[in-house]
Amino acid sequence: MTHATWDNPEAFSRALRLPHWRKTFTKVIAHDLETFNFMSFRSVNLTQKQEQVWGFKDPRSSITLPIWLDIFPNAKVINIIREGNAVASSLLQRGKNSQERNKIPSLVSLEPALSLDLWAEYVMTANQNCSILSGEKYLELKYEILLESPEATIRQIINFLKIDVNQEIVNNAVSRVKRPNNPVVKVEDISVTARTALDYYGYND
């Protein structure tokens, strides 16, 4: 509807500020959530009509979170923040991979400064969208801490969600935490917006 994309989300953010569009988006997505495929994804028992704890990971939720909260007002949000230069480096690798597959990459994934600006837009929009959530519904974590102390971080998440998990499941989750192999390229041409976001989250070395 807004022609927004993952690498150019501003149009969607602007539309969300308009009550009519926000209501329209919510109605469309809420309708889609009633499909059989999505209920299966949510692990809904279609016979007993009982729902298990479920969740999803999508960076675009930083932008679309207000709609998800309209649909699921009791949702719990876990916001995992990764250092901006590392994200920019990952996007650059993504652009390189696209070129190797003879696909047209996003301009953002070709230019480090644009990648860092996009990261700043995502993390600061998420910060604003999450500001309305209470401590019982919001957990903010650093990606780097997850890598350094995976079990402690995973247990923090388990406690936040108030779910019972045995040690085998914890061990399995810890084993899935892998350090990225891509080298981090430090962006030299940093905008004021990106610098503000880096400073805000303590990534100012």
Could you provide a short overview of the structure?
The protein is mainly α and 205 residues long. Helices cover 54% and strands 7% of the residues.
Report the CATH superfamily of the largest domain.
P-loop containing nucleotide triphosphate hydrolases
- CATH topology of the largest domain: the name is Rossmann fold
Could you say how many structural domains there are in total? 2
The structural class is mainly alpha
Multimerization state: single chain
Distance linking N and C termini? 40 Å
The CATH architecture of the largest domain can be named as 3-Layer(aba) Sandwich
State the helical fraction.
Answer: 40-55%
Q: Largest sheet at a glance?
A: 2 strands, antiparallel
Strand order of the largest sheet: 1-2
Number of DSSP E strands: 4
Number of helices: 10
Shape: globular
- Taking pLDDT < 50 over at least 5 consecutive residues as the criterion, the unreliable ranges are none
What is the top-level CATH class of the largest domain? Alpha Beta
Order of helices and strands: HHHEEHEHHEHHHH
Mean pLDDT: 89
Topology (elements, then pairings):
Blueprint: H1 10-16, H2 19-32, H3 36-41, E1 44-45, E2 50-51, H4 61-71, E3 77-81, H5 84-100, H6 112-130, E4 138-142, H7 143-148, H8 150-161, H9 167-175, H10 192-200
Parallel strand pairs: 3-4
Antiparallel strand pairs: 1-2
Helix pairs in contact: 2-4, 4-6, 5-6, 6-10, 8-9
